[in-house]
């Protein structure tokens, strides 16, 4: 087995500043108020991932999932500990990727692909495929600022999934997509998983994590709460009982996906 | 599309931090991305404006007209400085190149925050791209000046061309270094965007653009050498040596003998050993860039959370 991702005692501190201007800071200090507050968004997290594993990263809002993913993708660096990865990384950090609202869909697509490490030749070979997958042929020359959140997520996902990466990160990538697109994405991600790439999939939908992943990691207020079997992880989060009511829609989508695959 | 044997191939790749950051080197290793960013910046800088790219010429041109009218006409430097318009214009190209790099470079990271927050890429890309865009705008201005110089009897010389290249090189280095430092500072406190405006005013008056170097030489005597410690002033002098000096031959009452030669201007209006000064300033610029990179690397980690 080849090790794909290795985290050793990783922590990330964030400093919340209540005041920004000189005047506010002096007034607050004179009154003896706190002017900033430091907290750990990710707190002493360690785990390793082997190449080809599909990890479901779960946890409540604000538990540090996106911050962890940003450190794995290289956008942020840990304040303590080390993050090591092997091979090329592609993926989405939160919906909408890093798009420039004033640029057209085409320009953003090209730029995004280049940032994720595609060469000019690789991109020209895959361009049509990416556009076709996104289903945005008609809106390609429109500024991304006028896209709906679902549409920009589609474009971001389409670019990221077509990069020849060894690690694929998807942070709630499918949360805003519509049903047919979700189905398409799940199918594509399964292809990616079966080709031996490592997947990191953030989702609140217990059913799609069950379908996609071979292991679940749960974060609780920045700390590693659970790491192991998928079913147990979902039980640990108490997502198993109420999934039929709240995640009913998600389940349907995944049932459909199941039929197609 | 999907790799057939990623596992076997990967065994030879070592585990490494996801963003192995080698700063400016990474910028030039990823030339395709840099090219895209430069091209985008060119089209985006004046986006939504009716005159678009023409602002890059209107801006220096209006400065030129004001200086020409006020300093040349009202304060009377037309009489003492031969071919004063070319003198101003040579200085203005250099100054404008620097202020544009500095100003737009300072805002570059904040302006691209949507990308910086979510995508892993060397963040030095943005200030460097800004410098290259400003350099792109220098080209037509130089063409205009060459035409103006040729019309006033200028013949290009090798020494002058070396001077011009050194001058541009100095600004590229100093401009990129300043943009690097201020772009990251601007993330933490937007005040730096305003400080830049103040500094740019100092730049305009701290270089021999609207007054000739000979005035400094006359007023300050041996202290004039301290003036040449300012790399921006040297870049302007180098540019003037390349273009303006060659246009100054002609009858002139202020010169002994009543006729000014190019050699006289080169000796009288330029500091001695100009090329040596230029080379020294390229070295200073390189050191400054190194320092800027160190500062940038130190604070870069905090950029995504402070944006």
Automatic annotation (TrEMBL), chain A:
Transport in keyword set: yes
Q: Does the keyword ATP-binding apply?
A: yes
Q: Mind telling me what this protein is named?
A: ABC transporter ATP-binding protein
State the species of origin: Nocardioides panacisoli
- One Gene Ontology MF term: ATP binding
Say which domain of life the source belongs to.
Bacteria
For this protein, the record's SMART domains field holds: AAA (SM00382)
Cite the PANTHER family for this sequence.
TEICHOIC ACIDS EXPORT ATP-BINDING PROTEIN TAGH
Ranges for domain ABC transporter come to 5-246
Provide the family line: Belongs to the ABC transporter superfamily.
What does the UniProt keyword field contain?
Answer: ATP-binding, Nucleotide-binding, Transport
Q: For the region Disordered, give the residue spans.
A: 242-261
């Amino acid at each position: 087995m080849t090790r794909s991702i290795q985290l050793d005692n990783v922590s990330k501190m964030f400093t919340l500043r209540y005041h920004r201007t000189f005047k506010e800071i002096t007034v607050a200090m004179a009154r003896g108020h706190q002017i900033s507050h430091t907290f750990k968004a990710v707190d002493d997290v360690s785990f390793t991932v082997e190449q080809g594993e599909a990890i479901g990263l779960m946890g409540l809002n604000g538990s540090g999932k996106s911050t962890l993913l940003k450190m794995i993708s290289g956008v942020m660096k840990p304040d303590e500990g080390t993050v090591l990865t092997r091979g090329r990384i592609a993926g989405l950090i939160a919906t909408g990727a890093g798009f420039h609202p004033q640029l057209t869909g085409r320009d953003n697509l090209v730029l995004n692909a280049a940032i994720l490490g595609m060469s000019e030749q690789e991109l020209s070979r895959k361009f049509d495929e990416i556009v076709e997958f996104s289903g945005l042929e008609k809106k390609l020359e429109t500024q991304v600022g006028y896209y709906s959140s679902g549409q920009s997520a589609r474009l971001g996902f389409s670019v990221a999934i077509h990069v020849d990466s060894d690690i694929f990160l998807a942070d709630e990538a499918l949360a805003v997509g519509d049903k047919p697109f979700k189905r398409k994405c799940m199918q594509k991600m399964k292809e990616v998983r079966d080709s031996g790439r490592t997947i990191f999939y953030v989702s609140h939908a217990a059913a799609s994590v069950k379908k996609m992943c071979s292991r679940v990691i749960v974060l609780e207020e920045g700390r590693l709460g659970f790491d192991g079997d998928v079913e147990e992880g979902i039980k640990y989060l108490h997502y198993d009982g109420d999934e039929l009511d709240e995640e009913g829609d998600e389940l349907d989508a995944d049932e459909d996906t199941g039929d197609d695959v | 599309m999907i790799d057939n044997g990623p596992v076997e191939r990967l065994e030879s790749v070592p585990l490494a931090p996801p963003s192995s950051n080698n700063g400016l080197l990474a910028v030039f290793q990823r030339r395709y991305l840099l090219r895209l960013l430069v091209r985008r910046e060119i089209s985006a800088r004046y986006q939504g404006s009716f005159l678009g790219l023409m602002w890059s010429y209107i801006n220096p041109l209006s400065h030129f007209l004001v200086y020409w009218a006020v300093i040349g006409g009202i304060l009377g430097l037309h009489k003492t400085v031969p071919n004063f318009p070319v003198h101003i214009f040579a200085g203005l190209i250099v100054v404008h190149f620097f202020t544009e790099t500095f100003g737009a470079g300072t805002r570059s990271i904040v302006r691209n925050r949507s990308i910086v927050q979510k995508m892993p890429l060397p963040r030095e890309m943005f200030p460097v791209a800004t410098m290259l865009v400003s350099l792109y705008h220098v080209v037509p201005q130089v063409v205009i000046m060459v035409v103006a110089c040729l019309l006033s009897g200028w013949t290009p010389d090798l020494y002058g061309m070396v001077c011009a290249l050194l001058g541009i090189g100095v600004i590229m280095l100093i401009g990129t270094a300043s943009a690097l430092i201020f772009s990251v500072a601007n993330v933490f406190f937007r005040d730096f965007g305003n400080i830049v405006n103040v500094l740019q005013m100092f730049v305009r008056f701290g270089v021999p653009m609207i007054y000739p170097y000979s005035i400094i030489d006359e007023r300050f005597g041996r202290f004039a050498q301290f003036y040449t410690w300012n790399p921006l002033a040297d870049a302007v002098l180098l540019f003037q040596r390349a273009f303006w000096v060659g246009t100054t031959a002609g009858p002139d009452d202020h010169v002994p003998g009543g006729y000014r030669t190019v050699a006289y201007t080169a000796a009288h209006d330029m500091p001695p050993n100009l090329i040596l000064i230029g080379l020294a300033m390229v070295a200073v610029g390189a050191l400054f860039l190194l320092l800027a990179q160190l500062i940038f690397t130190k604070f870069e980690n905090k950029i995504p959370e402070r944006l």
